[in-house]
UniProtKB/TrEMBL annotation:
Residues 344-387 form the RING-Gid-type domain. A zinc finger (RING-Gid-type) spans 344-387. This is Protein RMD5 homolog isoform X1. It comes from Cicer arietinum. PANTHER family: GH10162P, MACROPHAGE ERYTHROBLAST ATTACHER-RELATED. Pfam families: CTLH (PF10607), zf-RING_UBOX (PF13445). SUPFAM superfamilies: RING/U-box. One of its GO terms (biological process) is proteasome-mediated ubiquitin-dependent protein catabolic process. Residues 165-222 form the CTLH domain. It is found in: Cytoplasm.
Amino acid sequence: MGESSIVRGACDLNIKMEISSIKDAFDRVAKKQKLCSSKSQETVDQVGREIEQALAALRSPQDPSTLADQKSVLTELKLKLNAIGALQQLEGPHKELNTSLGKYQKLLEKLLNPDISKAYRNVDFDSHIINQIIASHFYHQGLYDLGDSIVNEAGEPDATALRSQFLEMHQVIEAMRTRNLQPALTWVTANREKLVQIGSNLELKIHTLQYVEVLQNGTRADALKYAKTHLAPFASLNKDDFHKLMGCLLYAGRLENSPYSELLSPFHWEITTEELARQFCSLMGQSYQNPLSVVFAAGVEGLPTLLKLANVMAAKKQEWQEMKQLPVPVELGKEFQFHSIFVCPVSRDQGSEENPPMLLPCLHVLCKQSIIKLSKNSTRTFKCPYCPAEATVAHCRQLYF
């Protein structure tokens, strides 16, 4: 068994043990809570019954000139309540429950709120690139004052090149949110050739939004004129959409009561605004998703696994700091997968520069280290683990993802 398999097994065992500890502690607290609730309800019901019996006795017919019977009822009720000892009955179970809750909270704090600095590794960063990333993050979010502060304090004038571009994008988007499409139309017209090259029909979508606005708030003649001027150039490539839009002319001013009422949905504005932002970033050579936000979100999702690994390797700090590839997989969602990866079906290791995927003559793929082991350090032919074909290391070719 390789060292990575041992580490992976230790991490998995550690995680299972911690989950088991949390579950056992939760079960104990839940049991205490049920018991406490049951005892409390029983005590309250017992006190309630004694009081109801006393009230019934006081309401029964009796000589109003004497209070002896009433006093005896109240005296008897007092004695019974003292005998029940409601306060003591409630206090004991609640103390036990509070003790269990306190222990459970400490366990959660220990297991779920660890010192995240343990997962930190010394990595060489290019401060110039980091400063630009942070400044771009603020510009991307529309926080221009913060971005300018980073640029000025870090002395990164090159980062300001993105400021004007993101500023224009946010101005266009804000205008769209107020149903003002003119800035968006100006931008798509100026970038028409680039948008066509990437197969975008954003210009048609924006003109469609404007056409629907004219159709709903103007006259049929105004809508027809707009369609002839701005929608007709797209008719040959978008026949179905064009016929649909022309059908809307029959319902000018009352589109909400037509078969085309869905065109009035705010959803069309939202999705077109998002697409414009995506295309804007694409033409700038920037990611639509803020890179710093993506990295931060991925780090938060992968942190539990990293902490478990750091605890397992606590005695090997030097190895932890110098490790180029993690010995265990860090499971992230599909939203964090931006390129293809290869995991060796034999060793379960992810392909890397040192251990790349290799194509066998039989067209099966293994990682290089697995092939070296199968071939006894490249000294003999070996049999593919998945078919009867034989091969040598010389016959294998590296694959690039």
